[in-house]
């Protein structure tokens, strides 16, 4: 018996294979996308930089952009989030100054919000759109998922 091997008496000196995990539910997939993770396995290392999403997940090989122009939906999600932030800023600004609404400060706040929010949310919009696309593809009748195997002994489980 190998003294440096596993402590599992049933392993007979060999490492047991990691168990298969079932696929995540809809909410978990969407939350993974919102947190800049792979929608399928939850891997964190999917960006090469702030603006550069890897072509596929290094852990489960999920392709993020299925076709050319596939992230047009991510642009729409990014735009919608920026508009929601802007509407909140405008509503609060107008509500606080309702008798005499100052245009210049609201214009400056609008420019700031509509510049910063899309840049900040850009990577999240791409992974959120990849999660939505994954949910759509996963719901197709001919979809067959390759086995998702993760080692539960690692600390990066969700």
Task: Report strand %.
Answer: under 5%
Radius of gyration, taken over Cα atoms and rounded to an integer in Å? 22 Å
Number of strands: 0
**pLDDT below 50 for ≥5 consecutive residues: which ranges?**
1-5
Question: Biggest β-sheet, characterized?
Answer: none
Apparent shape: elongated
Cα(first) to Cα(last) distance is 34 Å
Compute the number of helices.
3
Number of domains: 1
Binned, the helix content reads 40-55%
Structural features:
single chain; 158 residues; mainly alpha; 3 helices; 0% strand
Explain briefly what this protein structure is.
By secondary structure, the protein is mainly α.
Give a written overview of the molecule.
44% of the residues lie in helices and 0% in strands. It has 158 residues and is mainly alpha-helical. It has one domain. The protein contains 3 helices and no strands. It has helices spanning 26-34, 72-96, 103-138.
């Amino acid at each position: 018996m190998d003294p440096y091997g596993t402590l599992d008496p049933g392993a007979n000196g060999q490492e047991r294979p990691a168990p298969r995990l079932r696929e995540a539910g809809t909410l978990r997939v969407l939350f993974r996308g919102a947190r800049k993770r792979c929608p399928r396995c939850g891997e964190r290392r999917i960006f090469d930089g702030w603006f550069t999403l890897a072509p596929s997940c290094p852990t489960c090989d999920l392709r993020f952009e299925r076709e050319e122009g596939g992230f047009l939906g991510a642009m729409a999600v990014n735009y919608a989030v920026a508009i929601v932030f802007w509407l909140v800023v405008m509503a609060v600004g107008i509500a606080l100054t309702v008798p005499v609404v100052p245009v210049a400060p609201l214009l400056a706040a609008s420019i700031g919000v509509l510049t910063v929010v899309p840049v900040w949310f850009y990577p999240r919009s791409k992974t959120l759109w990849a999660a939505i696309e994954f949910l759509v593809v996963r719901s197709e009748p001919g979809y067959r998922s390759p086995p998702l195997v993760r080692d539960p002994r690692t600390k990066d489980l969700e």
